Amino acid sequence: MTDKLTVSVLGTGIMGAAMARNLVRAGHTVRVWNRTRAKAEPLAADGAQVAGTPAAAVEGADVVLTMLYDGPAALDVMREAAPALRSGAAWVQSTTAGIEGVGALAAFAHEHGLVFFDAPVLGTRQPAESGQLLVLAAGPSAHRAAVTPVFDAVGARTVWSGEDGAAGTATRLKLVANSWVIAATAAVGEVLALAGALGVDPQDFFDAIGGGPLDMGYLRAKSALVLEDRLTPPQFAVATAAKDARLIVRAGEEHGVRLDVAAASAERLERAAAQGHADEDMVAAYFASFGSTDRPAG
């Protein structure tokens, strides 16, 4: 197989659009589709072909990449694309779909003769735009050459977790990683809220932990978004983080593990979304500490 592929990207939100641009830059023929076409149209200026339907996007594609909201959304779109899917094509499923969701998607792939790769990614807007995502992938080694050029275009590194995408090993790893990201983000918001309530300058806190084992770049980066009112455009939106938090909680429940922090984080994110912060960066869960959305930080 040539290194230059025809790739269909279904879903052009924050992550999908960035991935599509990097695929174009790598020299691949890229067709894009999004339910709200206006979100896909700007990619035409980058060299992507904007399709009107999922079927038109996937016709003749070597690789289909889905980056949609959740598992059911990915399955619905692939059902729309089904009449034009080419048997033997690779399906790179990058939606955070949850363990149960991956099983349903893999079953669809089997029914339609697709080579299924469970391939969620770690990273937010900035690494996505620069092609520096971490790809977590599972799929048959005999077919990995077909998708390696795609992973190389969108990511800095690929971590293979298994031979069978249907087993969801990559998705399981993604849920574990996201549980840490969501917990850390919730902690950032609560630290800033408590500092403000107690009259503590957040910078005094940063100075106190600076250079020690409690310091971390993520804390400072996410805090800056709140303190400097830079919550849009989001690196990773509140509504999407809330969905992922619920998938994490459900995965824990199904495997006999109680995840109190993840459950509380999901509630905080959902509360912030209800306050009007759904499309802001996930650290806007900070506002869930208050009864209104206009409480200043620090």
Please characterize this protein's 3D structure.
The chain has helices spanning 14-25, 54-58, 71-81, 98-111, 125-129, 144-154, 169-198, 202-209, 217-227, 238-254, 260-277; strands spanning 6-10, 29-33, 49-50, 63-66, 90-93, 115-118, 121-122, 133-138, 155-162. The protein is an alpha/beta fold and 298 residues long. The model has no long low-confidence stretch (mean pLDDT 96).
User: Roughly what fraction of the amino acids lie in strands?
Assistant: 5-15%
Number of helices: 11
Main beta-sheet annotation: 6 strands, parallel
The unreliable regions are none
Secondary structure category: alpha/beta
The value of Rg in angstroms is: 20 Å
Q: Considering DSSP H and I runs of 4 or more, what fraction of the residues is helical?
A: 40-55%
Number of strands: 9
Basic shape = globular
Distance between the termini: 56 Å
**Major sheet: order of its strands?**
3-2-1-4-5-6
Mean pLDDT: 96
What is the N-to-C succession of helices and strands?
EHEEHEHEHEEHEHEHHHHH
Quick overview:
The chain has 298 residues and is an alpha/beta fold. 48% of the residues lie in helices and 13% in strands.
Please outline the helices and strands.
Blueprint: E1 6-10, H1 14-25, E2 29-33, E3 49-50, H2 54-58, E4 63-66, H3 71-81, E5 90-93, H4 98-111, E6 115-118, E7 121-122, H5 125-129, E8 133-138, H6 144-154, E9 155-162, H7 169-198, H8 202-209, H9 217-227, H10 238-254, H11 260-277
Parallel strand pairs: 1-2, 1-4, 2-3, 4-5, 5-6, 8-9
Antiparallel strand pairs: 7-8
